[in-house]
Design goal:
There is one protein chain. 24% of the residues lie in helices and 23% in strands. Helix 3 (54-66) packs parallel to helix 4 (95-101) and helix 8 runs parallel beside helix 12 (354-368). The chain is globular. Bound molecules: pyridoxal-5'-phosphate (PLP). Pyridoxal-5'-phosphate is lined by residues 5-7, 34, 36, 81, 85, 112, 114-115, 137, 148.
């Protein structure tokens, strides 16, 4: 039977068994089962159970043979995977014939070969021993087409006879007017089951896929041999990786002791990494870096709930607690209470090469093997918070504001505030920063640059004098650039209906979940086609309402220091936790007090972001030094960090009696130690470090993605699995900013203060 995927095949069997006997059926499955198998339990009226291991299954099968069967017995379906999609372990095919040989009537086997068949032969030629039902996914074998199959042993085909539903193409005749009657097709089993139009293009393509696969690889046996050699190599290499202090890097999840060479292991490896101090490395961190390096790795619970819970040692109680605390499939709550919530998986296939294995191991070594000596490690880890390298303040340095930038449209290009203009700073950030966003016209979700890098080429300008927001589309190849002018006033007639910003805009893993934001949408066709044509997605501009009505709240920061700083001042403190917000799992103690939140607009995490020119320069130096000879590196521009305030420093030359020494005038990452700073009479507080993602890899001039600077940052600027660069800052609440207006301008000098 051709079906959409293996899951559809499983469901077809489940539905048939539900209708097979008026009492329904009992369902048993192995702990290694894929989620799609586990789900069958939902339609098993007689209940279901999970066999914890192979002995469990064998004991049950022996019981079938010895127990007296009687007429009251209800039908049973037993399902298991031919190969665990998590650990790659292969389970005995023999169980299917053992069940049949037990002589018990109406006990059926469902063999999930989706993972197994992708790299090894599936031999069903011995029909006496074959499973009653077998499912496969062709795309896992051939890559294309997206198609699956349910293979039914003909002797077990009668199970489908009582299936209640019938779809087009499965019936010999239907009477629907006057009376209700239909007759199933009697030609063959698949004729009765293939509901509706078949995916005929895919079925035709399958023929070519099989032919090409055979031409390239010869046979599935070749594929099996090839992949198991690769898997063996990869396994040995990963397992041998150690940090310089001797601690192991990889924890590989496997069920059998004799891992390879026995034919009971497929080329799938699931694992987690530990740093040199024995802490779990966050899986999503590895996944992001791998993506930057062009490596596709799967992370999470891998659709294998039983296997994951077993290998991670998660009890049902713990899993429920994690769920209640906000953990969801696909999110970035990687480690909760010191335990990983999922893992990483690599799968090798026919087209994988020894070179791929080398590349992957190199990647792991490059980013995760800690080659520092123990002494340095202790030093690095005793630093209190976010400080990466201890530095001593050199008072001779003078800092000044080198550049001020705002991002009037969230995720679009920067507007650099011209020198000489004083810009207003509000509690929620620089004036006009993230005042607008682009929303998808279908879903209402705010667009972002991670998904649409070309947003970097949309450059807004604020013309306060004439009250105009000018937006220019800067196509690198095309000239002249097109632009549009809108009024800065909220009375702009093209500002139309209000709409709730779709929840899809909120990051799954962050504290913004659950907050709803209402934006005002520009309804003019001219405006929406201006943006839609450029980005190739139906979207339009929307404006955030005046901040009093719908502010979001900035991430809670974990440092106690910041808590106390903010706590003292009531006008800064907003009501505690927002409905639906997540606690910050990354903080070590789970019962830390809730930190107050700071009002912000659409900016991501805090009112303002500060970076230092010296740190950017240092980073570029590091990128250059880390580059393999021969390959070209391009220095990254400071604007990839999308900061609001870029500071630079000047240091006077130091004269010695003999010569004038040009003292190295840069102290990179000095800002890491600041707890705040003054610009003129205004005080700013540092809220905490800024965590970075791959978005810093989008060149803001060309909208082209590359692997830097994220790749180098990940190697040199990581703390607790987070890649940090820049500082979140806000206006201090010491002054009453409701009455005085704070302004800054390029060139203002800045006086930092330290803990
Ligand atoms: C992939 C997989 C499935 C699900 O297959 P689909 O084609 O996505 O429905 C089921 N079981 C195992 C073991 C798998 O690896």
């Amino acid at each position: 039977m051709f079906v959409a995927n293996a899951t559809a095949g499983i469901k077809l069997v489940a539905d048939a068994l539900r209708d097979y006997d008026a009492r329904g059926f009992w369902y048993g499955y192995h702990a290694d089962a894929h989620t799609s198998l586990v789900g069958v339990g939902g339609v098993a009226e007689q209940g279901s159970g999970c066999f914890l291991d192979d002995q469990d299954v064998q004991g049950w099968i022996e019981g079938l043979a010895t127990e007296e069967s009687n007429a009251e017995d209800c039908p049973i379906l037993f399902a298991y995977p031919g190969q665990s999609n998590m650990t790659g372990r292969r389970l005995p095919v023999k169980w299917c014939s053992d069940i049949r040989d037990s002589g018990r009537k109406d006990v059926f086997s469902l063999f999930d070969a989706a993972s197994l068949a992708s790299t090894s032969p599936l031999d069903l030629s011995e029909s006496k021993a074959a499973p009653d039902f077998t499912v496969v996914s062709f795309y896992k074998i051939f890559g294309f087409p997206d198609l699956g199959a349910l293979i039914v042993r003909k002797d077990s085909g009668h199970v489908f006879a009582k299936r209640k539903y019938f779809g087009g193409g499965t019936v010999g005749m239907v009477i629907s007017l006057g009376e209700q009657w239909h007759a199933k097709k009697t030609t063959s089993i698949h004729d009765q089951l293939e509901d509706g139009t078949l995916p005929f293009h895919s079925i035709i393509a399958l023929d070519s896929a099989i032919a090409v696969h055979e031409r390239l690889y010869g046979s599935m046996k070749n594929v099996s041999q090839h992949t198991s050699i690769l898997a063996q190599t990869l396994y040995d290499r990963l397992l041998s990786l150690r940090h310089r202090n001797g601690n192991k890097l990889c924890s590989i999840y496997k069920s059998s002791e004799n891992y390879t060479g026995t034919g009971n292991q497929g080329p799938v490896i699931s694992f987690n990494l530990k740093d040199s101090m024995g802490n779990w490395i966050h899986k999503s961190d590895v996944e992001k870096l791998a993506a930057v390096k062009g490596i596709h790795i799967r992370s999470g619970t891998l659709c294998n709930p039983g296997g994951m819970a077993y290998h991670l040692g998660l009890t049902p109680g713990e899993m429920r607690r994690n769920y209640n605390a906000g953990q969801r499939c696909g999110d970035e709550n990687d480690v909760i209470n010191g335990k990983p919530t999922g893992g990483l998986r690599i799968s090798l296939g026919a087209m994988s090469s020894a070179n791929d294995v080398e590349k992957f191991v190199d990647f792991i070594c490059e980013f995760y093997v800690d080659s520092r000596a123990s002494r340095e490690l202790i030093h690095a880890n005793t630093e209190s918070g976010d400080v990466i390298q201890p530095l001593s303040p050199l008072s001779a340095s003078e800092f000044y504001v080198e550049q001020l930038c705002i991002y009037p449209i969230k995720s679009c290009g920067a507007y650099a505030i011209p020198a000489g203009i004083r810009w207003v700073v509000k509690r929620e950030g620089l004036e006009w920063d993230r005042e607008w966003c682009l929303i998808h016209e279908g879903t209402g979700a705010a667009l972002n640059q991670k998904r649409y890098p070309r947003m970097a080429l949309i450059r807004p300008t604020i013309d306060q004098e004439n009250g105009i927001l000018r937006i220019t589309l800067t196509e690198p190849q095309a000239y002249p650039n097109s632009s549009i002018e809108l009024s800065l006033s909220r009375d702009d007639p093209s500002l139309g209906r209000s709409t709730e910003l779709s929840q899809a805009t909120t990051k799954k893993s962050s504290t913004v979940c659950g907050d709803s934001v209402t934006v005002q949408v520009y309804s003019s066709d001219k405006i929406s086609s201006f943006f839609s044509d450029f980005l190739g997605v139906p979207c339009t501009l929307a404006r955030f309402p005046p901040h009093q009505h719908a502010a979001r709240y900035s991430k809670s920061y974990k440092s106690q220091r910041q808590v106390s700083q903010l706590n003292g001042h009531d006008n800064f403190q907003l009501p505690g936790s927002m409905p639906g917000t997540f606690p910050d799992f990354t903080s070590n103690a789970s019962n830390e007090p809730q930190t107050p939140r700071t009002q912000i607009l659409l900016s991501n995490e805090s009112p303002m972001l500060l970076i230092s020119r010296s740190s950017v320069n240092k980073l570029n130096e590091t990128i250059k030094n880390g580059t393999r000879p021969g390959s070209t590196t391009k220095a990254v521009s400071a604007d990839v960090f999308r900061a609001n305030i870029i500071i630079a420093e000047t240091r006077p030359r130091i004269s010695s009696p003999y010569t004038t020494v040009h003292q190295k005038s840069e102290q990179p990452y000095f800002e890491d130690q600041w707890s705040g700073f003054d610009i003129g009479v205004s005080r700013f507080n540092v809220l905490g470090p800024c965590q970075r993602c791959q978005m810093v890899c989008v060149d803001q001039l060309t909208a082209v993605r590359s692997e830097e600077p994220f790749s180098t940052l990940a190697k040199t600027r990581k703390v607790d699995g987070k890649v940090l660069f820049g500082r979140h800052v806000c206006l201090s609440s010491l002054d009453n900013y409701e009455v005085t207006t704070v302004t800054v301008k390029v060139g203002d000098s800045l006086t930092p203060f330290y803990e």
